[in-house]
Amino acid sequence: MRDVVVIGAGLAGLAAAIKAADAGLSVTLITKGVGGIQLGTGTVDILGYGPDPVEAP
């Protein structure tokens, strides 16, 4: 059983899934199609704005 289920892989869904996973929760991300990030590959850096630096995604 998962702690969190996120519906949608747009920016908000991905950000929510990442925050939940960083908090140690088990996360399932459900999306239809390719998601919002696929349309702008390399143009949106959602991992780069947290309080701690990210070494690698």
From TrEMBL:
<dbReference type="InterPro" id="IPR003953">
    <property type="entry name" value="FAD-dep_OxRdtase_2_FAD-bd"/>
</dbReference>
<keyword id="KW-0560">Oxidoreductase</keyword>
<keyword id="KW-0285">Flavoprotein</keyword>
<dbReference type="GO" id="GO:0016491">
    <property type="term" value="F:oxidoreductase activity"/>
</dbReference>
<feature type="domain" description="FAD-dependent oxidoreductase 2 FAD-binding">
    <location>
        <begin position="3"/>
        <end position="52"/>
    </location>
</feature>
<dbReference type="InterPro" id="IPR036188">
    <property type="entry name" value="FAD/NAD-bd_sf"/>
</dbReference>
<dbReference type="Pfam" id="PF00890">
    <property type="entry name" value="FAD_binding_2"/>
</dbReference>
<protein>
    <submittedName>
        <fullName>FAD-binding protein</fullName>
    </submittedName>
</protein>
